[in-house]
Amino acid sequence: MKDHIIASALARVRTKFLEELPKSLHELQALRRQVELGVSLKDASGEIGLIAHRLSGTAATLGFQDLGAAASGLEALTTRRTSPDILPDDLLPHLDRLLGLMQTALDPHDHARLASSQKAG
Amino acid sequence: MRILCVDDDPIILALLTEVLRVIGLTNLTCCTSASEALDTIDQTGAPFDCFLFDIQMPGMDGIELTSAVRNMPQYRVTPIVMITAMSDRSYVDRAFAAGASDYLTKPFELGEVHARLRLIESLVIERMQMDDRNPVATVGRSLSYVAQADMDEQLSLVDVKGFIEYLALENYLLQIAKSSLAGTYTVGIVVPDLESTFRSSSVYEYKSTIADFAEAIAKTLKPLKFLAAHAGGGKFVCVLENGDKFKAQQFETALKEELKAMDLTFADTRPLALKPVVGEPIALQMESSRNIASSLVRAVEMAKAEAQRLREEASQSSSPLKRMFGQ
User: Fold this and answer.
1) Partners of B29 in the beta sheet?
2) Parallel, antiparallel or unpaired: strands B185-190 and B235-241
3) C or N terminus of chain A, fewer CB within 10 Å?
């Protein structure tokens, strides 16, 4: 009985999480472009770390274990770099993996809306 | 139980709201920043019974917020649980030193969240019942004679730097055990005869003496990074970081010197001549996780055993037969 109540409570939050996820996805995609262009690397890395931190705190609890682990790994990369202006070589592969997992999480839920918002963007 | 939850992530706030609702905790106020939380605390009518704070937030972080709340007289011992993805030892150390009572790491293990909050709820209810039974207890009791219940109480000496509540110290140990215990030691300190000495004293006098001993312990330990707690009666326990070079005997001598310099007396100005005994430290690095939880109790037991050994040694050296034969 209690498991059922917990599951339905988590389902409500999971819906909210998935509603918010496209926003984080677009932000990370924009930050990825910024990193590729080498613009304001310090700020971009900090922002990536912040978004990854938030995702790592919630995703796994809501059933997205891989997404949570990828976010946690990415956050660690952004906080453990040695110089503010030099990003780790493996930052982009990690970021791409996270972006892929975010898209996978969204696919069954809101694929159409994501696609239309990407076109609009 | 009135709970104030602070996190800059609305999803976490939604998650906690749902998770707490499952166990019947519905009186939850949510804030998305430390400054909003401080305003809410300032404006609230009925005080909060428990706080849940995220650590990493823009502006004032959750550890600074914990310090700010602990500085408010009405919230000196109110449970504060850190809810955070920051599991590094440095964050744990800072959070507990600032006054955190417990620490929950994200992603949440829901069973653990429920168990911890249930425990806190029972503690809050117990404190409320004590206050309800005797609303003037704190005033009246301090003037009455020390009872066994006073001796058993683990005092909250949170005004002494480095001292936290005993339960918080237990939670701290369990949390740091998840990362690294290298160089971490527990050490017990007992003050033999303290209980019998204060048996016919006022509660106020007894508690003041305990606070004086805590001050002396904190001052003597100062070069080291530590957290400590009162373990009831004349018993104290410390958790030392980088305690590899800690020497119990040297510390005991320094502590006695510190107490001598403090020139402690009874209320009627008679000198207080109690001498603390320090037990051998317990290195936690090689302990199993099951033993970690009991290491505070074992540290006190080590100090008690040392006190007993010294007592026997003293009684042997003063035995009439030995004196007769010059031994």
Assistant:
1) B4
2) antiparallel
3) N
- Chain B neighbors of A14, CB-CB under 8 A: none
Query: What HEC string does chain B produce?
Result: CCEEEECCCHHHHHHHHHHHHHCCCCCEEEECCHHHHHHHHHHCCCCCCEEEECCCCCCCCHHHHHHHHHCCHHHCCCCEEEEECCCCHHHHHHHHHHCCCEEEECCCCHHHHHHHHHHHHHHHHHHHHHHHHCCCHHHHHHHCECCHHHHHCCCCCCCCCCECCHHHHHHHHHHHCCCCCCCCEEEEEECCCHHHHCCCCEHHHHHHHHHHHHHHHHHHHCCCEEEEEECCCCEEEEEEECHHHCCHHHHHHHHHHHHHHHCCECCCCCECCCCCEECCCEECCCCCHHHHHHHHHHHHHHHHHHHHHHHHHHHHHCCHHHHHCCC
Task: Read off the tokens for B302.
Answer: 């080590």
Edge to edge, the sheet with strand B102-105 lists: B28-31, B3-6, B50-53, B80-84, B102-105
Question: How do residues B12-67 score in pLDDT, each as one tens digit?
Answer: 999 999 999 988 999 999 999 999 999 999 999 889 999 999 998 889 999 999 99
Both tokens assigned to B117: 């909050």
Q: Indicate if the pLDDT at residue B301 is higher than 70.
A: yes
Cβ within 8 Å of B, A 6-25: 6, 9-10, 12-13, 16-17, 20
Question: How buried is residue A63: exposed, middle or buried, by Cβ count under 10 Å (0-12/13-18/19+)?
Answer: middle
Q: Which residue in B55, B164, B51, B34 sits closest to B105, CA to CA?
A: B55
The size of chain A, in residues, is 121
Considering only CA atoms, which of B299, B166, B187 is closest in space to residue B229? Answer: B166
The DSSP code for A40 is S
pLDDT for residue A121: 42
Is A25 within 8 Å of A106 (Cβ atoms)?
A: yes
Cis, bond preceding B107 (omega within 30 deg of 0): yes
Please answer yes or no on whether A6 and B110 come within 8 Å at the CB atom.
yes
Question: What are the Cα distances from residue A114, in Å, to A27, A111, A121?
Answer: 13, 5, 10
- Top pLDDT among B293 and A108 is at B293
Contact with chain B for residue A28, Cβ under 8 A = no
Judged by a CB distance cut-off of 8 A, whether residue A59 touches chain B is yes
Of A12, A56, A57, the CB nearest to B18: A12
